[in-house]
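Private note to self, pasted from the team thread so I don't lose it. Backbone tokens:
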């Protein structure tokens, strides 16, 4: 079994590579994610930010609400359900030292080993459970996953993972929307920024079947046609190169203004003082994986650096 580092909304863990996202809702502050293999759901994650900053949350009360949902489901099917709390699932006594945590198990049509814990540094409550068939031994895989869990392990960036796409994004960018399809992935982020740069945006897209998309056109022609609305109002410089089996195209430029061509000194001086929005796009065509990656950043301050950091974090051949 091959394991990979999986990340979502600040939660990082080592998981079997064949487990893929099959259910997703919410945002970075509160949400739910489910992964499954070819046979059944295998892992569930729930996370939320504690509402009160004065005291630690009651994890058993959170579990009470969660078990109400499970009991309601099994009541409809009239199947037996066994729930246990405060069970010993991890041998290491130092596991999550300093964290409030509760282990639990439940067993019905399927079985689950679970962990709910509170991270004081981030004020986040995270529930994670590993699932298997009723007679399947999932103890070892449970321990492997639980002992690998980290909450926001990097102070500067967060890992986001879906369908073999692994990308690192600066921590101050928040997930705004996403689209996860077999031939197309989208992660869109916003950054409230500073008073002078309030609307910083970042997006990562991956397209499959690059040979079909580029059948009768170059990578630059495809991008200019596909993203003509996004690049409207910007002037560009273009760099291109082929390296390690990947065609690279970088577009970088600033917004144009109607006052740019007014030959009045005071107007031109005002143009120089007021910062312009910058648009930077890294477009990469990987020949081996037959995919196109498009990373776009709009910002007045750090567009060039952010776009390069994000683009370079992606393993193109996955």
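Design output:
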């Amino acid at each position: 079994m091959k394991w990979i580092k999986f990340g979502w909304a600040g939660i990082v863990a080592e998981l079997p590579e064949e487990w893929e996202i099959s259910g997703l809702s919410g945002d970075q502050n509160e949400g739910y994610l489910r992964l499954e293999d070819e046979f059944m759901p295998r892992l569930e994650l729930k996370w939320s930010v504690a509402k009160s900053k004065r005291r630690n949350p009651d994890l058993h009360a959170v579990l009470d609400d969660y078990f109400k949902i499970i009991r309601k489901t099994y009541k409809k099917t009239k199947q037996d359900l066994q729930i246990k709390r405060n069970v010993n699932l991890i041998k290491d006594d130092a596991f999550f030292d300093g964290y409030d945590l509760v282990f639990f198990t439940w067993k019905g049509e399927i079985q689950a080993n679970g962990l709910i814990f509170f991270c004081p540094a981030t004020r986040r409550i995270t529930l994670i459970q590993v699932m298997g068939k009723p007679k399947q031994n999932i103890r070892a895989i449970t321990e492997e996953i639980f002992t690998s869990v980290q909450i926001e392990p990097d102070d500067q960036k967060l890992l986001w993972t879906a369908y073999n796409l692994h990308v690192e994004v600066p921590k101050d960018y928040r997930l705004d929307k996403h689209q996860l399809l077999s031939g197309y992935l989208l992660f869109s982020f916003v950054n409230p920024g500073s008073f002078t740069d309030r609307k910083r945006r970042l997006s990562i897209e991956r397209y499959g079947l690059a040979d079909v998309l580029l059948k009768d056109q170059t990578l630059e022609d495809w991008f200019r046609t596909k993203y003509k609305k996004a690049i409207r109002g910007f002037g560009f410089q273009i760099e291109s190169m082929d390296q390690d089996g990947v065609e690279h195209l970088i577009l970088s430029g600033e917004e144009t203004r109607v006052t740019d061509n007014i030959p009045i000194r005071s107007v031109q001086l005002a143009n120089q003082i007021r910062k312009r929005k910058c648009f930077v796009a890294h477009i990469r065509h990987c020949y081996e994986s037959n995919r196109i990656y498009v990373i776009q950043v709009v910002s007045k301050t750090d567009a060039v650096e952010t776009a390069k950091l994000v683009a370079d974090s992606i393993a193109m051949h996955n």
